[in-house]
Write a structure and sequence with these properties.
The complex is a heterotrimer of chains A (about 375), B (about 260) and C (about 70).
Chain A lengths: L4 E5 H11 L2 E6 L6 H13 L3 E4 L3 H13 L3 E7 H17 L4 E8 L5 E5 L4 H6 L8 E3 L4 H18 L3 E6 H5 L1 E5 L41 E3 L13 H16 L2 H4 L2 E4 L6 E6 L2 H14 L4 E6 L1 E3 L3 H7 L5 E6 L5 H9 L4 E6 L8 H10 L3
Parallel strand pairs in A: 2-3, 2-4, 4-5, 5-8, 7-8, 12-13, 12-15, 15-16
Antiparallel strand pairs in A: 1-9, 5-6, 7-14, 11-13
Chain B lengths: L20 H15 L6 E5 L14 E4 L5 H11 L4 E7 H7 L1 H10 L4 E6 L2 E2 L5 E2 L23 H8 L3 E6 L3 H13 L4 E6 L3 H7 L5 H11 E3 H4 L11 E8 L5 H10 L1
Parallel strand pairs in B: 1-2, 1-3, 3-4, 4-8, 7-8, 9-10
Antiparallel strand pairs in B: 5-6, 7-10
Helix pairs in contact in B: 1-6, 3-4, 4-5
Chain C lengths: L5 E6 L9 H5 L5 E3 L5 E3 L10 H5 L5 E6 L3
The chains are: A alpha/beta (about 375), B alpha/beta (about 260), C alpha+beta (about 70).
Chain lengths: ~375, ~260, ~70
Amino acid sequence: MNEHVVLMQGNEAVAEGAIAAGVRFYAGYPITPSSEIAEIMARRMPEVGGVFLQMEDEIASIMAIIGASLAGKKVLTATSGPGFSLMQEGLGYACMVEAPIVLLESMRYGPSTGMPTKVSQMDLMQSRWGTHGDHWIIVLSPASVEESYRLTIRAVNLAEKYRNPVIVLSDETISHLREPIDVSVSPTLTDRKLPVEKSGYLPYRTDISLVPAIANIGTGFHTSFTGLVHGESGFQTANGHVAEALVERLRDKLFNNLDDIIQFETDRVEDAEILFVSFGITARGVSETVETLRSRGRKAGALRLVTLFPFDDDRIRQAAGSARTIIVPELNSGQLVLLIKRVFGDSRKVVPMNKINGDLISPQDILDFLQEENL
Amino acid sequence: MRLDFLRSERLPNIWCPGCGNGIVLRALLEAISQLQLDPDKVVLVSGIGCSSRAPAYTAFDNVHTLHGRAIPTATGIKLANPDLSVIVLTGDGDCSAIGGNHLIHAARRDVDITVVVFNNYNYGMTGGQASPLTPAASITTTTPSGNMDRPFDLVNLATGAGATYVARSGIYFTKHLVDHLRKAISHRGFSLVDAVAQCPTYYGRFNRKGSAGQMITSQKDWMVLKNVADKKNPEELAGKVVIGEFVNIIGARQADIDAAKEQS
Amino acid sequence: MPERKSYKITHYRKWCKNCGICVAVCPKKVYEIDRNDRHAIVHPQDCIGCQMCVDHCPDFALTVEEVKDE
């Protein structure tokens, strides 16, 4: 085995990935199943010259990382369902002021405090629509410890590049799973674009990228930040045209770059007659199921969403091949399936497969489901 | 006051005629002028409410955050860049109700920020509702028959939570206010100034406090300097508000930090 | 007896909201709110340069400077 291959827990991979990506500020509040990230950061941040803060709650945690981000740091916080609910107002604020932040959410069983040590995928829609108002967000979904490491680095880079919050939507199982990963490759890092010229500086003026070059606090540019609708100057306005232009730009700065942002993996989609669309931990059970079905002569395939949001119907349609039957297994009562049904309408048979008892979807579960449903 | 600290193109301000917020803001800019702080290294952070609009009238970096959330945001800014003078401008509701948890924990941590409370005894922006600092028996739109709750004493609250600099002043006593703002900003550790202002539009009108001019000059009658108050008995101080410096502890945390370092 | 100093009062009409605080705090009754509810400088010659009006103006609408003889 390569000497750079180390055995890591999913939560540890997130922490180490963040450090490799340049994160030097962490603020958080203990919550199962993400607490290990705070514990690791409490030890690791001082070692790398960073700051670790245990805040009084998740509201304070997200606001602290937003403040640190606006002052120039690469930042991370981590939480789970109940804490994620508390972070929603801060998440909307980060979207509005365009603060690059990364938030790790490890999904546990809900609603409310639910079953803290049991896995779910019940926060998919919350990751997209948890905060109020029209807003756009990047959500990445790891399916392994190795991918937790890699996607955390990618999340930091995307946050900096697009000045947008990025959520790494993990789950209880991946958080606590231990797998070997190779940490020898030094990642390519992205830094936020900064302004040069002080005279005539307008923090929210953008070029064709639609991503503003906002100065870090304390660098002499005297920027104004507000969660209120603001024009290029950064100051509040109630002008409807300015509001419309702002909300459209916040969308377009991501949607003009879907090729860069959206990633997915396919497995034998080309000739598949039955296709599984899934994300995160559920995709691992799907992989084995596809093997089994193929060995039995059934043309099965899989599409795994690595980027969950932005969600682009056209890309999903193209990636899904021509399978007549599409099965959407997920650890909730049917959230991803709503999007997949939107993509395909009545043109394919889209079948939800849901498990909500706190256990994973096993390959045998899927095989049993196919039999029961005559699929 | 350095006039270039004002973002004059943003004036006139949005505040009602006779609002005390502008007087606190002016005192703050005067304190910053007297301290000769580098304007590139001053950042003003606010929450939501009338007073939280104040930072946007200044030429400094300014961060208008969410209701109650100025203090944790300021904490993040300060720890990300300790060279900055980070000053939170907040209201009585913003800092003691929705932001109360953040206030006590920032005081407990003794994070090196200054909190200036524009205390006008009510929520002005939303129409004059009661806040945790509204005096008992006062009329507000949410206490139409008089406030049945007792208010926080903000000075005692901050002191109990561990703040290492705590002062109170009033907008009539502008030199006193400037002096204490200056000391608070130069204090190393968590500092809070309860700046008693006024809301003639709501609190003043509902409670028959007279015109803006009468409200401000009346502070002479119901405020007592701390060194005078210290010589009086509680009966003599009934209905009075004591102004002055209540806590000023230098190096309070050093023993704890040294002990923690010893452990590791 | 030293010669009495004189002061120049500048009033920024655009920022003033005619709240009357300057009237209330001025020890020399330099200001009035006039019949049209507008701020008015009625006795500028009585100004002693104490800056009370400047320090208490919520709208940054007043400055008082000593007039220096050339």
